[in-house]
Fold this sequence. Notes:
Blueprint: H1 26-40, H2 45-52, H3 56-68, E1 72-74, E2 89-91, E3 97-103, E4 107-113, E5 119-126, H4 132-148, H5 152-156, E6 158-165, H6 173-176, H7 180-183, H8 185-188, H9 191-196, E7 203-207, H10 208-219, E8 228-233, E9 237-243, E10 246-248, E11 262-264, E12 270-272, H11 279-288, H12 295-298, H13 307-331, E13 336-341, H14 345-360, E14 371-374, H15 381-395, H16 399-406
Parallel strand pairs: 3-6, 6-7, 8-13, 13-14
Antiparallel strand pairs: 1-2, 3-4, 4-5, 8-9, 9-10, 11-12
Helix pairs in contact: 1-3, 2-3, 10-15, 13-14
Amino acid sequence: MDSGSNTQPATRLERNQRGSSQSGMRAYNERLVLSLVRRHGALSKTDIAKMTSLSTQTVSVIMRQLEAEGLLLRGDPVRGKVGQPSVPMSLAPEGALFFGLKNGRRSADLVLVDFVGNVLAQRRKTYNYPSPHTVVEFTHTSIAEIMDGLSPDLRSRIAGLGIATPFRLWSWAETIGAPASVMDAWRTSDIRADIASRYDFPVYLQNDATAACGAELVFGEVQSLADFLYFYIGTFIGGGVVLNGSLYTGHTGNAGALGPMPVRDSSGSTRQLIDVASIVTLEQALEKNRMDSHSLWENPDGWNADPQILSKWIDDTADGLAQAIVAAASLIDFEAVLIDGWIPAAVRRSIVDATRNSLLELNLVGIDVPSINEGTVGPNARALGGASLPLSERFLLDRNAVLQGLG
């Protein structure tokens, strides 16, 4: 093994990552190299050849091409005891840039991220409810402002925009106190087409909580996990499902919605998870006690909520999550559950701890309980998930496609 090698024992995910030496598969092999470097960090051509069964010569050609395109950076040579020095290559942060738009029920966020996930710029708008016109105009204005601050070279490296949005927004009019006439506009609105009409880069769209789960896959610290369940606590709770290291979206794109799962509340009544574990539930509790709730939407680190009300919401949320986890684990043998959201880090930690405790109070006979952990991306997961859509589509492997190709 070369000195400076960053190889590790193959995980279940990587045992299915094999390269092809056929000339027609070059694009696949380039994605394979970029995916491995993203997963492991800086790698030499010898490292990648060992991981993929490609020849060292083939890998060298691919890495030189990716370096020429500005997608890989050459590191300092590392000399071993014998042979030629090993030259590690890493992702070039400015190799490609991506916009991510989170279209939410209370706010919209637009981020510009680089190839490794650093947020270079961000714009935010809060509102009582979203309208297509408001979100589209916010997006255009924010993109123009951000692009004006970029050099011509960086502007040329914008590779796409991804939109993370709740599906069927019109169905939430009553819950969020929005006029039905405004929300009905979402029935016929095509936000992806309306935004894409102004730009020469591609625009993608995905459910917001599913996109947040995708951000964990691309930018998070979950590289060793093959199967996990993901909860994102936003205005309404949602989530995602990861199987064999790939985001599973289902035939409608709404798999892992999670919010409709039935749970029992503290009174013993059966409700949907969305009614006990969403931020809007905390908002309603505060307003019922004539307390201001605006801080919930302005900044996830700046919540100003009554401690007693917040504590009860955390306990109720944890009880609901524990029941949902048991139901999900009865169907799929998940390795882990990740919990994240538009919530302060301390609140997220409390929810995770309380969920672990609530699980112990349930009947777990016949169930292998997955580990319960905090998400690693944080409040920006939905916007970053949007940005991950063009990144994944244009530069990374779809592991499900890899498995099918090997079949």
